[in-house]
């Protein structure tokens, strides 16, 4: 007896909020809506034809309403009942439409940008789409390919950091789409790109102009790859001539031991969320990237060996990184465990233990400690590096290794990755002790 699926309501769809990963809401009889972490909700119709499972895209919500999606589902179900494959039927219809058109219609920039963002956020799907694009007549075993990607035998691009994805969305929303969003991508001219960039430059945001040009270039590369256009219009802009240079502003950081002592002494008195305070303390003690703290999970901690293994997908180097934990760092974990051991995350979001801490939480905490004008969470790495180099009597190589910076050539990097673990253990324990005994050092 088939399992009954309660039909969706428009209210359910409206209230479906994005999560960390895509999820589905089923309406029954093969119809479901996919809710991605970002972007539009997408209708899908899953069916079987000649003992093979297939999938059709029915458009995005709310452009395609619940009622319209159901109508499409029933139409395609009738085709299957008649022995007609809906995918082949659609191909034939699209082919006839293309033949009847006097010239091919170029997709709008906003639609291309949406597809590019989805592919950036879903590297496995991008890899599969590229295979289909390169070999349209070849049958792709999607399930097998996804298994190999998950196992690591097929390498795909990493999902960019949340901050990078947010930047892409901001570039599109604030500067790109208002000017060329509704223009077919084949009709965009170099002067249109210049207008976007000059508007940004006019408000003094030179770095944003460079970054926006980079985003435009990525969109056009995607469009060219999937044969939506032949013209690399952003490539006609010569950045060295047309875009003003800018000075990269480094992350705010404190290097004076007096300021560090004030910050470290203020931290226990933070009046915000307890988990946030402990996360910030753990960040200072480990000197990792803030994103590593937000992604940190209990199953990556080995208390007996006093190590934290950060998986490769969370590292810029694409290699797992072992962080030796000082006694003080282990104490933080011991104190926070009763509060979050029922969560996969060590420092989960205050909005729910199944969600990771938001990107701005640690920086907001630093501001609330009245240090926001001096320090940001990523600047703690610079703080650690400066003090360790000045006071710690360690080599630059040992300190760089502690920060997971690349040291030596590729051969040296590949050889004996753990060779510095014990040295780094000494560095991190020295750093934790230094923080606790700041008054013993000069100029404090």
- The CATH architecture of the largest domain can be named as Orthogonal Bundle
**Which structural class should the secondary elements be placed in?**
alpha+beta
The largest beta-sheet arranges its strands as: 1-2-3-4
Largest sheet report: 4 strands, antiparallel
Instruction: Write the CATH fold name of the largest domain.
Output: hpI Integrase, Chain A
Structure summary, number of beta strands? 9
Q: How widely separated are the two ends?
A: 76 Å
Q: Based on CA inertia axes, which overall geometry fits? A: globular
**Helicity range:** 40-55%
Radius of gyration: 26 Å
Count of DSSP H/I helices: 19
Amount of beta strand: 5-15%
Which superfamily, in CATH terms, is the homologous superfamily of the largest domain?
Intergrase catalytic core
Q: For this structure, what is the CATH class of the largest domain?
A: Mainly Alpha
Mean pLDDT: 86
Whole-number tally of structural domains: 3
Query: What oligomeric assembly is this protein in?
Result: single chain
Q: Give the low-confidence spans.
A: 407-416
Order of helices and strands: HEEEEHHHHHHHHHHHHEEEHEEHHHHH
């Amino acid at each position: 007896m088939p399992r009954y699926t309660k039909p969706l309501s428009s209210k359910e769809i409206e209230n479906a909020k994005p999560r960390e990963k895509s999820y589905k809401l089923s309406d029954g009889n093969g119809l479901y809506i996919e809710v991605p972490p970002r972007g539009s909700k997408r209708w899908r119709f899953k069916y079987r034809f000649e003992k093979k499972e297939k999938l059709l895209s029915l458009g995005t919500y709310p452009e395609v309403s619940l009622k319209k999606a159901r109508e499409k589902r029933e139409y395609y179900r009738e085709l299957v009942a008649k022995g007609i494959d809906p995918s082949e039927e659609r191909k034939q219809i699209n082919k006839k439409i293309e033949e009847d058109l006097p010239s091919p219609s170029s997709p709008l920039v906003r639609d291309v940008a949406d597809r590019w963002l989805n592919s950036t956020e879903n590297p496995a799907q991008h890899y599969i789409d590229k295979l289909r694009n390169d070999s349209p007549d070849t049958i792709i075993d999607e399930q097998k390919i996804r298994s190999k990607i998950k196992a690591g035998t097929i390498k795909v691009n990493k999902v960019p950091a949340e901050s990078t994805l947010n930047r892409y969305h901001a570039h599109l929303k604030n500067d790109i789409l208002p000017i060329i969003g509704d223009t077919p991508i084949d009709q965009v001219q170099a002067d249109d790109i210049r207008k976007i960039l000059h508007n940004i430059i006019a408000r003094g945001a030179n770095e944003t102009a460079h970054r926006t040009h980079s985003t435009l270039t990525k969109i056009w590369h995607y469009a060219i790859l999937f044969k939506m256009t032949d013209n690399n219009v952003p490539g006609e802009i010569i950045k060295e001539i047309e875009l003003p240079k800018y000075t990269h502003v480094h992350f705010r950081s404190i290097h004076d031991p007096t300021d560090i002592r004030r910050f470290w002494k203020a931290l226990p008195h933070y009046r915000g969320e307890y988990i946030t305070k402990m996360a910030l303390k753990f960040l200072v003690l480990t000197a990792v990237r803030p994103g590593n703290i937000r992604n940190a999970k209990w199953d990556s901690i080995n208390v007996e060996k006093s190590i934290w293994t950060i998986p490769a997908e969370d590292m810029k180097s694409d290699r797992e990184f072992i962080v030796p934990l000082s006694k003080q760092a282990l104490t933080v974990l011991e104190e926070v465990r009763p509060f979050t051991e029922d969560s996969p995350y060590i420092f989960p979001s205050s909005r729910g233990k199944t969600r990771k801490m938001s990107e701005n939480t640690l920086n907001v905490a630093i501001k609330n400690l009245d240090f926001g004008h001096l320090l940001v969470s990523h600047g703690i790495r610079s703080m650690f590096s400066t003090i360790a180099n000045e006071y710690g009597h360690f080599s630059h190589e040992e300190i760089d290794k502690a920060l997971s910076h690349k040291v030596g050539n590729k051969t040296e990097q590949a050889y004996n990755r753990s060779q510095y673990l014990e040295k780094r253990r000494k560095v991190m324990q020295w750093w934790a002790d230094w923080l606790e005994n700041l008054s013993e050092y000069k100029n404090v």
